[in-house]
Write a structure and sequence with these properties.
three-stranded antiparallel beta sheet; single chain; 3 helices
């Protein structure tokens, strides 16, 4: 690094200590059991496979808050153990097979769970309520928690239960580590059930493929769009159409009031209440979805038509066409790629035309 000097022309290079030594830090370890079976029936017209696994992870590395001895408050340590287990089942069948026509079906179902069995550190409230989730012993990895919302008051302001068990509009300590039991557990941000379902139909040279994917068991933190103040450049959610406007609206809506400038200038601390609303239990949606992942149609030209070629085919493929099911609270946002890579752009539909020739 370059130490500060009173004259900018005096420059020299220095060496600084970025982290303290940590001789007690060791490798992460894992014990794993896996068992699988594959069987086929009726000359492989029905094929089944089943796998089950159980993993125990020890000495997982993570950050730990210390007393700051040596100059570091947060240090890396082997601070946790966890267990995970799952099952995967797949079946493929040939439903119909004749000289000119065939119909094949495939189904994949996978179920997985995890649990933190030992944890030597404690996450803050802010770590537990953000979209990626946090760590609490006895709960899944990346568990999502929420500030318990208690409705709007007579002024349209959101109210909550804080770490002291008090009803408040804004007095919540987001840096609290020791008392986080007041938070509401929402679920894991990782899906517990995933799989696919596909069908392939063939008639002479034509082949039609329909492929569906699905995912269930996780929750999603909605975008933190609510604030005590807004500018003319703010992009507002349509939820504001149902906001609190006049006394009595608190009985019909849970969308808080848009504060006037006078109200905000009177008490600027109320902005923390709107931040708490963004991370409350009313701002959580299910991450479940069923997606039409792919539809493709292919035609293989007859050998008699392509004497000089070994094969020739034409394929039209459409990907990510639509969702059969998703939580309405997402308002059209894609649950599979929600805030993937820091953005929430819709997954684009893709159409591909392919001509394949073999020489």
């Amino acid at each position: 690094y370059n130490p500060w000097r009173p004259i900018s022309g005096d420059k020299e290079t220095g060496i600084e200590l970025s982290e303290l030594e940590n001789s007690e830090l060791t490798y992460e370890k894992k014990h794993e059991f896996n068992f699988g079976v594959e069987v086929g029936f009726l000359r492989d017209r029905i094929n089944l496979s089943f796998d089950v696994y159980k993993r125990k992870n020890f000495d997982e590395i993570g950050p730990v808050a210390t007393q700051g001895i040596g100059g570091e408050v947060i240090r890396w340590a082997n601070n946790s153990d966890m267990e995970s287990k799952g099952q995967e089942f797949s079946i493929s069948t040939t439903n119909i097979k004749t000289r000119n026509f065939s119909w094949n079906t495939s189904l994949v179902y996978a179920h997985m769970t995890s649990e933190i069995t030992n944890l030597a550190s404690r996450d803050r409230v802010v770590d537990l309520i953000t979209n990626v989730g946090g760590r609490v012993q006895g709960y899944p990895v990346r568990s999502l928690f929420s500030v318990p919302f208690q409705g709007l008051n007579e002024h349209g302001l959101p109210t909550f239960l804080n770490e002291k068990g008090e009803l408040t509009t804004h007095e919540i300590d987001f840096q609290e580590r020791d008392n986080t039991s007041f938070l509401k557990y929402e679920g894991s941000t990782d899906p517990t059930v995933q799989g696919s379902f596909g069908n392939t139909f063939k008639y002479k040279g034509f082949s039609l493929n329909l492929f569906v994917t699905y995912s269930f068991g996780n929750v999603v933190r909605l975008d933190p769009v609510f604030s005590a103040t807004y500018s003319d450049l703010s992009s507002m959610t349509k939820d504001f159409k149902n906001r609190w406007v006049v006394p009595g609206d608190e009985a019909r809506t849970n969308v808080p009031v848009i504060l006037s400038k006078r109200e905000y200038e009177k008490d600027k601390t109320i902005s923390s209440g709107y931040n708490a609303y963004n991370y409350s239990d009313v701002r959580v949606a299910k991450g479940d979805f069923i997606r039409m992942k792919e539809i493709s149609l292919q035609y293989d030209f007859p050998k008699a038509w392509i004497a000089s070629l070994t094969n020739l085919s034409l394929k039209l493929q459409a990907t990510n066409l639509f969702l059969f099911y998703a939580d309405k609270k997402l308002n059209g946002q894609d649950p599979e790629f929600f805030r993937s890579g820091g953005v929430s752009a819709p997954v684009p539909k893709q159409f591909t035309l392919t001509l394949k020739a073999g020489f």
